[in-house]
Each structure stands twice: as structure tokens, then as C-alpha cells.
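Researcher: Quick test of sequence recovery. C-alpha cells follow.
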């Protein structure tokens, strides 16, 4: 039998593949195309981040279409980042595996670097939470969304760190992306909602091993155990393992099913990032500029300082890379502004996170004996609301820039309301499903009341920003 006949027979024996399975294999077979896409994104990213930092700040009469700085601000913060978040929910972390410029540069550096072993301290699972909090708070202190030099400092610094880590540690791997990326934790949470994921068939894996003496090898760039591959949370959707040992395929699943069924997979880091990160720190970061409570706090602190003849915090400014300092734009933070900002974000985090923890704890206790694992799992049901809030917060800059162009945006508030209500409904549905894994009947309904209060609070903190203030 000729080689062509053998190949034809093998193809006839294979079951027909679905469109989504073929898409996964396409990712595997077109690495050169993907690399070209990655370098194109790197060039665009560099242009949007670097060039505006060396241009004069736009005049008050400048427009998006005639000023490169405003155009870059609109494209990067107003379009790019909000829709990266949406892509996580729709397609998993395909952004990380195919498009992300930091990941591409870090992996490129890893191919040509020193290949050192990854130090133990770098593997600490709390780094994504710490990095998210630090970059979020620091970004507010230097007004990262408004000024290109601040954006270059944070994003350029992060990219440089990714390259250095890639050069020093690992070989053809994404050490930075797996352990240190400031948004890795957020992306991993949102990817749990995705309707697509790569999954390994353990039975087919074992059969392939029995039928083949020489086993193919695939190196996952994020160190995932391919035999147990199931979750979309850590997977970067690069497609390199597609059809590996005829066992790994890209599959469709019900949206959010990874959350409703993954009772044993949630960790305390997930809990902290959802409850105190996305629904705490991020809320405070988006709130403060519109919050009357921030104004009251700042005025109270100023009066206390004046009464004690401590005037210097009101008159002292810091360099732009510590606190916003653009006097030509009538935008300069003094030390009091910086302190008030930190206090407000910290207070918002503690209050919001505390209320959510209490409500989740009550729902957890109603189900039965106290279980931290169950508490962590219940917190994952808030991911739709947490993600929707961050998306709306980022898109607020989009709305501001478009309003400055006198575009009709009468529909914005309605869309915001629909997004919040839809995300709240999704969180309630996930909560009901998760509670059903443990109890039924009256205990389930009673616990659901506590969970509904949790969802209501999560909606309230975003409602204040977009509809009350």
C-alpha cells in the first residue's frame, strides 16, 4: 500500500472535526502567521505607547482625528483594553497566546536568553494580585489614562521587565506571563467564563500511549500539565498542543460552566482578587475622581492640617513620576491629594471587600459547616459583575473622548444599565448553580438570599459611579 493510500485510510478513519476543533488545529499549523501577527501588534503597541510621550500635550481644541496623542489615547485606553477584556470572556486567553506584545517579547527573549531555572520566590502565586494592586494604585497616582509619559512609564516598564525576565529565566517559555504579569490574574478569572477551551481526553491519551512507541512532545509555554488540561483559566490558547496525541482539542462548553462546576479549583488568591481586587481596589480607582466622598475626605484632611499649622502638605508637589504634576494643564497633585487618594482607595477596598466577604460568609454558613474552599468558590460567581465593572470603568474614557467630539451619546446610560443588569443576572445564575452543588430546597433558597445581597452590593458600587454621581 502506498503512502498516499495509508494517509487516505487514516483520514477516513478519523471522525469529522467540528469548526471549533479545526480552528484549534489552525492555530497549531500556522505558527509563522501568528508570529507575523505578534510582531505587527508589537510595532503598533510601541507606536501607541512611545511616540505620544515625546509629543507636546494636546491643546484644548485638539481632536482625536488631528492629534496623534489623543488618537493614541482613544485607541489604546478607549478601544484596545476594554475589548481585550471582552475577548477573555468570548474566546478565553487567546489575546495572551496570539496577540499580547509583552508575552511575545518575553517569549522571544526566552528563546535567545540564558535559560536559568525559575527561582522559588518567583513561583509565589500571590504575585498577580500584588502586581495588579500596585499598578492600579500607582497608575491613579500619576494619571496613567490621561498622560502619555505616565503610560510609557508603567507599560514600558512592565514590558521591559517582561523582556528581562524572559531573557534570564526559562527556555522558549513565558515565565513573566505565568507568574508576574499584573493582569494575568484578572485574565485568568475572566477566561473561566469563556465558552471555548482546550481540553484533554484522558482515555484517548492512554490509548495513544498504548498504540505508539515514539511519543510526540509539546512544550507548553506556560508549563501546564497537558494530560490534565481542562481549565481555560491558565491556558493561553496558543494552539501548540492542539490534537496532541489525538487527545487535546478545542471544544465548546456552556459559558461559565467552569465556575459552576469547579468547586475544588478555587483558591484564596482567586477570592482576594475578586472581592478585594476587582470589587475593591478597582472600584476605588475608578470612583475617586467622581466621588463626593473623596472631596469630603480631602477637605476634612485639609482643615485638620490648617488647624495644626501644617501647610507644607498642601504646598508640596512631587515629580510627575510620583504624583501627577502638569501645571501647564492645571493638573498637579500636592502631597495631600496623594494621601487622600491612597486613603480613599484603601477605605473603599476594605469596606466593599468587607461587605462582600460578610455576605458570602453568611451564604456559606447557611449551606452547612464552615468551609473556606466553598467560600472561595462562591466568590467566583461575582466574576461577571467584576469584569463588567472594570470594562465600564475603562470605557468611561472612551465616552469622555467621544463626548468632547460632540458625538450623540444619548444611548450610553441605557447600554451601561443593560450591561450591569445582564452581568448581575449572570452572577445570580452562577450563584444558584454553585449553591445547588451543595444543598437543595429551602437551604438553597435561604443561602441564595445572602448571595443576592452580595450581587446587589456589587451592582451598587458601580451604579453610584455611573448613575448617582
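Model:
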Amino acid at each position: 500500500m502506498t503512502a498516499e493510500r495509508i494517509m487516505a485510510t487514516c483520514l477516513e478513519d478519523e471522525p469529522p472535526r467540528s469548526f471549533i476543533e479545526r480552528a484549534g488545529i489552525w492555530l497549531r499549523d500556522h505558527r509563522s502567521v501568528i508570529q507575523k501577527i505578534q510582531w505587527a501588534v508589537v510595532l503598533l503597541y510601541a507606536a501607541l505607547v512611545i511616540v505620544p510621550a515625546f509629543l507636546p500635550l494636546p491643546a484644548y481644541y485638539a481632536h482625536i482625528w488631528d492629534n496623534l496623542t489623543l488618537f493614541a489615547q482613544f485607541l489604546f485606553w478607549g478601544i484596545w483594553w476594554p475589548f481585550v477584556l471582552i475577548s477573555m470572556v468570548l474566546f478565553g486567553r487567546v489575546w495572551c497566546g496570539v496577540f499580547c506584545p509583552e508575552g511575545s517579547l518575553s517569549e522571544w527573549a526566552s528563546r535567545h536568553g540564558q535559560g536559568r531555572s525559575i527561582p522559588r520566590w518567583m513561583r509565589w502565586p500571590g504575585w498577580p494580585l500584588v502586581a495588579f494592586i500596585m499598578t492600579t494604585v500607582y497608575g491613579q497616582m500619576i494619571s496613567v489614562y490621561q498622560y502619555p509619559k505616565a503610560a510609557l512609564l508603567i507599560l514600558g516598564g512592565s514590558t521591559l521587565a517582561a523582556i528581562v525576565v524572559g531573557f534570564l529565566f526559562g527556555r522558549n517559555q513565558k515565565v513573566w506571563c505565568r507568574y508576574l504579569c499584573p493582569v494575568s490574574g484578572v485574565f485568568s478569572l475572566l477566561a473561566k467564563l469563556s465558552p471555548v477551551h482546550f481540553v484533554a481526553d484522558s482515555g484517548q491519551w492512554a490509548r495513544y500511549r498504548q498504540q505508539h512507541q515514539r511519543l510526540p512532545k509539546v512544550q507548553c509555554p506556560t508549563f501546564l500539565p497537558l494530560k490534565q488540561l481542562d481549565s481555560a483559566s491558565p491556558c493561553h490558547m496558543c494552539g501548540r498542543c492542539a490534537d496532541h496525541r489525538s487527545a487535546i482539542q478545542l471544544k465548546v462548553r456552556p459559558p461559565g460552566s467552569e465556575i459552576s462546576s469547579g468547586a475544588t479549583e478555587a483558591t484564596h488568591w482567586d477570592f482576594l482578587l475578586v472581592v478585594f481586587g476587582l470589587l475593591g481596589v478597582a472600584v476605588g480607582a475608578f470612583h475617586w475622581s467622581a466621588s463626593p466622598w473623596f472631596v469630603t475626605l480631602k477637605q476634612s484632611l485639609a482643615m485638620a492640617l490648617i488647624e495644626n499649622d501644617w501647610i507644607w502638605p498642601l504646598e508640596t508637589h512631587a515629580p510627575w513620576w510620583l504624583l501627577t504634576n502638569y501645571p501647564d494643564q492645571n493638573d498637579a497633585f500636592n502631597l495631600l491629594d496623594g494621601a487622600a487618594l491612597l486613603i480613599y482607595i484603601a477605605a473603599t477596598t476594605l469596606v466593599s471587600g468587607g461587605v462582600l466577604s460578610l455576605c458570602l460568609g453568611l451564604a456559606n454558613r447557611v449551606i452547612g459547616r464552615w468551609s473556606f474552599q466553598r467560600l472561595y468558590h462562591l466568590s467566583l460567581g461575582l466574576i461577571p459583575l467584576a469584569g463588567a465593572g472594570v470594562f465600564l470603568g475603562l470605557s468611561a474614557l472612551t465616552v469622555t473622548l467621544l463626548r468632547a467630539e460632540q458625538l450623540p451619546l444619548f444611548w450610553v446610560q441605557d447600554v451601561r444599565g443593560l450591561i450591569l443588569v445582564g452581568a448581575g443576572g449572570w452572577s445570580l445564575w452562577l450563584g444558584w448553580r454553585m449553591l445547588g452543588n451543595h444543598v437543595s430546597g429551602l437551604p438553597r433558597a435561604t443561602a441564595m438570599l445572602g448571595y443576592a445581597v452580595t450581587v446587589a452590593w456589587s451592582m451598587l458600587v458601580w451604579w453610584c459611579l455611573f448613575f448617582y454621581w
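Residues 18-255 form one domain.
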